[in-house]
Amino acid sequence: MIRKFFKRMFAKPAGLGKDNAGKPTHLNLGSRNKAAASYTVHKPKVWGVAEHKIDRRLVSHNAIRVCETLQAKGYKAFVVGGAVRDLLLGMRPKDFDVATDASPEQTQRLFRRARIIGRRFQIVHVMFGPETIETSTFRALTTGNSDTDEHGRVLRDNEFGRQDEDASRRDFTVNAMYYDPSTETVWDYHHGMEDLRAKTLRMIGEPAVRYREDPVRMLRVVRFAAKLNFNIEPATYAPIASMSDLLRNVPASRLFDEMLKLLMSGSALACLKGLRQAGLHHGVFPLLDAILEDEAGEAFLTEALARTDRRVHEGKPLSPGFLFACLLWHLVLENWEKRVKAGEVKFPALFAAMDEVLAEQAERTAIPRRLTGDMREIWAFQPRFEKRAGKAPFRMLEQQKFRAALDFFELRALVGNADPELARWWREFSDGESSNRQALLDKLRGSPQGDAGGTSSKKRRRRRKPKAAGAGQPPSGEAQ
Ligand code: ATP
Ligand code: MG
């Protein structure tokens, strides 16, 4: 009897962890008896290395270190989520997440450089030089009551639970596998391996319920399908068409984060096509629709995104500011053209157009200020490429955003939105030796095509095919 009592006292039931001294401590399990009906927990299938074939050399040493440190203290710890999925696909994961039954405080205490972040969803960032291992405590199933907005979106998510519950709360079956680097086993709760082999994205639980809890999952399914080249299982795809409006309730900053992930996934083009197919683009970028339907805008965007995808695959750095400048350029251009036609002065009109477009976007997608700063600089440079007189070109070279702005100008030239000759000249000017630079400028003065006074020559402009609205040259007129 007494033994039984002690056993019960010191057994480690669901959601219990041990603190550093080895004493069991209770985690907040909240009102878990009211778990939503759409969730069921499953027993895991445990795969050995012969079956899962994960190459341990692709696993971050730091992630292994986090798992081993936690395990040495008697906690469970696994690499989890996208990293396991990518490892199973033979890809090198871009980052590593760890899941454990230790609480955030217990985890933090075990590492020299670790901090707890987030309020609604606390996780621990364990830092090793440039690498951060996001370590989260197993989450309990969502309770059916409270903590949701009026549309059912889950607002609070800090109830700790068991590993099988944690697995049921993840989004897709292929994202719900746990890799233990010590035993080299994969714990698969929802037939993720089967779906992974069939290249299928399948939502865990009732898809409509899961989208209501978190509408961003609709964007995630499109992103993963594009990035992994997976099919979306029909029942997972079906509710999206009628639920896309729910994205309107998602905080703008979260939408921005997701949009950035989408654009930097290496499959940005495929992602945007996927968004359009699923009818999701309205909710994310209110004007994406207009951009994608405008022929000229689409050519520019397609080129910009193809270039972005190439850079991701080549492992080159990407500038989010540049990306967003591309995304919104045609809106700025149209707005600018309208203003100039209405008699506004060229440069102030461009600034007013930038302000208006950014203000419209701010309502839905919170583009951070540091990015809008970069975007403005890149845009504001564009008409300056038309002026090649005096010392101005040398001054432009010295400016921080010059290279990005020139890349942007070249991109425009590629799709007939700027003068290709001018773009070539600037590239030569920018990459050349300083003595050659002056020669390039001197040559302009003598040449009939020289534009030392201002914009590109009328002769060249007349030769170009007329384009649909928004497709042609930006307002040129005399530089003012
Ligand atoms: P990647 O990092 O390649 O974009 P990922 O699958 O690792 O993909 P993360 O956003 O890093 O995506 O999330 C890590 C894991 O957390 C996911 O694999 C999934 O198990 C879980 N997860 C993330 N977001 C959600 C969500 N909105 N709903 C349910 N589970 C989620
Ligand atoms: Mg990840």
Give the key terms.
two-stranded antiparallel ribbon, alpha+beta, binds adenosine-5'-triphosphate, Beta Polymerase, domain 2, cca-adding enzyme, domain 2, 3 domains, binds magnesium ion, disordered N terminus, elongated, Hydrophobic Seed Protein, 49% helix, 480 residues
Write up what this structure looks like.
The protein has 3 domains: 26-198, Beta Polymerase, domain 2; 206-285, Hydrophobic Seed Protein (Orthogonal Bundle), CATH 1.10.110; 304-453, cca-adding enzyme, domain 2 (Orthogonal Bundle). Helix 17 crosses helix 18 (346-362). The N and C termini lie far apart (92 Å). With 480 residues, it is α+β, with helices and mostly antiparallel strands. Mean pLDDT is 83; it is low at 1-37 and 452-472. The protein has helices spanning 2-10, 49-52, 61-72, 82-88, 104-109, 163-169, 192-197, 207-213, 216-228, 234-237, 240-243, 252-263, 268-278, 281-284, 288-293, 295-313, 320-341, 346-362, 369-381, 392-398, 402-414, 420-431, 434-446, 458-463; strands spanning 16-18, 24-26, 45-47, 77-80, 97-100, 114-117, 123-128, 131-137, 177-180, 185-188, 200-201, 231-232. Strand 7 (123-128) and strand 8 (131-137) form a beta hairpin. The strands form 3 sheets. It has an 8-stranded mixed β-sheet. The protein is elongated, with a radius of gyration of 27 Å. The structure holds adenosine-5'-triphosphate and magnesium ion. Magnesium ion binds next to loops.
